[in-house]
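Following up on my earlier message about magnesium ion. Here are the inputs again, as you asked, copied directly from the submission form:
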Amino acid sequence: MLVDAGTVWGDDVETARSRLEMLNRLRVTWLEEPFHTGALEAYKGLAAVAGSLRLAAGEGSHNFYMAQHLIDYAGIGYIQIDTGRVGGITVAKQVADYASAKGITYVNHTFTSHLALSASIQPYAGLGDHTICEYPVALKALAKNLTQQTADG
Ligand SMILES: [Mg+2]
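Thanks, got it. Here's what our run produced:
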């Protein structure tokens, strides 16, 4: 099971820690954004006591260095990058390659359109072991109407 906490705990490690027993009982293996993107110490503190539960973070990264800091200092298991937010395909690929070299799994962050999904999967090129992909189950009407060719016609 994967859970997206949406930064609900800010940088409050103790409140997040109080949920660990329940999350582990439910066999949650992915906890996304328990804290704000820049709360590196909070991430590191929770990761140190999270057992088999691995933390995901990074969709709020606005540049390579923000993602690099999460990889280097936050104890996360997954770096989740929004290609449109981080600075484009080239920067996202730079993060993906850096994550791979550091033993962190690269995952895309995408929920808006086919165009965004197409851009977000480009950084996976050459990363055979990085197989988790977020994709939009249903597109917003605006996104679909702006696209001339879609998977369903
Ligand atoms: Mg999220």
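One observation from looking it over: The chain has one domain: 2-146. Hope that helps, and feel free to reply on this thread.
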